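TOPIC: backbone geometry
CONTENTS: sequence, structure tokens:
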Amino acid sequence: MSLAGFILLGAMLTVYVLLDGYDLGTAAISPLVAKTAQERADAMRSIGPFWNGNEVWLIAAGGTLFALFPKAYASSFSGFYLPFTIVLWLLMFRGLAMELRNHFTSNLWRDFWDVAFSGASTLLILLLGVALGNLVRGVPLDPNGYFVGTFGFLLNPYALLVGLLAVASLALHGALWLAMTARAELARRSLAVAPLGVAIVAALYVAATAYTFAMHDVDGIAWWVGLLPLISLGGLAGVFVAARLARPGAAFACSSLFLASLLSAAAASIYPFIVPSFPRGGGISAAGAMPGDARVLIFAVAIAGLIAVIAYSIVVARSFTRDAQNR
């Protein structure tokens, strides 16, 4: 049951990264590809109907963590209180930028919110990447499983490297989204930066993967985990080829494959722990964090919640797609 819960939580976080990743990435890449105020507005408009709904997956993942692994939830939210507070502020700034940008016709007003939109989204990606890096590396825990480090400890070289990889990967993901959905010139420019984006992501990915294997006991890793980096590199190669062939839809699908395999490798590297300790060798395990009583009932409720979120996402996507086609 703990393995099933771990897979469910990982799947929900992966879907969140794939969906909210393209609108975060769109905001991060827009200063490089959107040359005018109108193009920046078009970039915002391309994600406008979806960004709020995409964040439902993050809320659902948090609820699943609370329901299935309350001990890991308590440790994470108490130890990472400051980073989570910063994340909330960045999420609010993104929402404010989307809602307030067009309330006044002043160029200064719009430029301010454009900068806030892009900057908050980029910092949010960086923080989430740093969080993932620390999760893979492990964090200092006391005997009760609570975080005993500092905010400065979280900003270690490995976590920052993973954070930079996250920024580059989602910026590429966002560029491919714009290539599919934006108007002609903005779409062309977004697709044109994809090959360079692939090269940057590939360099950071190879460095982060080598660092990860250096930190872990290779003999203790299952053989199939070693295939995931190959799948990731194959996804990046697919992005490069599809971009060269001017097929943004195929490139976006390959980018999604890259991100999914990357997160799968991260999850496989920490299992059976939800929150590994630093130095490696212990932590809060999935089996130990799941409550012993009513496991089946709690898991059933989590599955029901997942079905509700999937249904909501499908309805929202179809509704806004239909509206866009009718305009």
User: Anything to note?
Assistant: Residues 2-33 form the longest helix (32 residues).
